[in-house]
Amino acid sequence: MLGRDRIQYKTPDQVRLMRAAGLIVADALQAVRAALAPGLTTGDLDRVANELIVGRGATPSFLNYGRPPYPATLCVSVNDEVVHGIPGSKVLRAGDVVSVDCGAILAGWHGDSAFTAVVPGDSERDPELAKTDQDLIDTTEESMWRGIAAIVAGERLNAIGVAVEDFVGDRFGLVEDYGGHGIGTEMHQAPHVLNYRTRDRGPKLRAGICLAIEPMLTAGNPDTRVLSDEWTVATVDGGNAAHWEHSVALLEDGLWVLTAHDGGVSKLTELGAPVSSLATSA
Predict the structure, then answer these.
(1) Phi and psi for 81 in degrees, rounded to 5?
(2) Are 95 and 67 in contact (CB under 8 A)?
(3) In angstroms, rounded to a whole number, what is the distance separating the alpha carbons of residues 104 and 111?
(4) For the segment 170-211, what is each residue's pLDDT rounded down to a tens digit?
(5) What structural domains and CATH numbers belong to the chain?
(6) pLDDT tens digit sequence for 137-149
(7) Can you tell me the mean pLDDT for 56-78?
(8) Which residue from 30, 85, 132, 237 puts its CA 20 to 30 A from 281's CA?
(9) What's the pLDDT at 123?
């Protein structure tokens, strides 16, 4: 159902269908994370995800999306690449910071999620820089959860951006050129979700809205540029970046993180956010 604000509001049964797609994405990212190792190419990671998604009877959301058509199942962004890195022949090294974004369609419904991790193994990277990388990753993940916990019925949409920005503070650069989005029968739907505060507080949040929350942080300057492949977004100063994302449903009785294996129950409870009974009974 489309509201007057052009947002697609879902019924609980439709959210259950989105949960099925979300679990496929969660399993694909889990498999990619387990495979992450020095010597693999970003294309190798793409094949891991593609085989799992297709094997579950789903379709990769990203493949052939947009103009020019996106040519892969995953976005794999390495070090200074923020988002939309195209998998290929790039060989991963121990200590690389790798962001992996994945989407899948099942029965017409989308799931979308991302994580960032350091390639394991012995690395020649300076220990202080390595510590900064891990802090960057951890801060980005926590800022995502703070944004998710701000999704409360009756609040305005920009409460999410306020929560993200307040948590990040001045510790890292907060990318403003890209943000989250509505999700459902299309991967990208209204509304666009900013990761920072604005005067426009946006529409009121109400039951049935489903959002992909995805902050992106940088170790240095948050300004970005698009590379010659017309997809990959990188930092202008060469600093490393991190990206985390979950797809989330707001229901009458609370939240359900559709792309988290536990439905988000553990982290939402820690943050004191309302958890839907669908998340605890699934």
Answers:
(1) -80, 130
(2) no
(3) 5
(4) 999 999 999 999 999 999 999 999 999 999 999 999 999 999
(5) 12-281 (3.90.230.10)
(6) 999 999 999 999 9
(7) 97
(8) 30
(9) 74
Looking up tokens 């050129």 gives 177
Q: Is the dihedral of CA 97, 42, 181, 153 positive or negative?
A: negative
pLDDT at 4: 60
Cβ atoms within 10 Å of 281's Cβ, excluding its own: 7
Peptide bond into 12 cis (omega under 30): no
Instruction: Reduce the DSSP state of residue 177 to 3 states and report it.
Output: coil
Half-sphere exposure of 88 (CA within 13 A, CB side): 9
| Global pTM value | 0.96
By CB atoms closer than 10 A (0-12, 13-18, 19+), residue 171 is middle
Q: If DSSP codes are grouped into helix, strand and coil, which group holds residue 100?
A: strand
Cα three-residue angle 222-220-259, rounded to 5 degrees: 60
**Angle formed at CA 187 by CA 58 and CA 164, multiple of 5 degrees:** 120
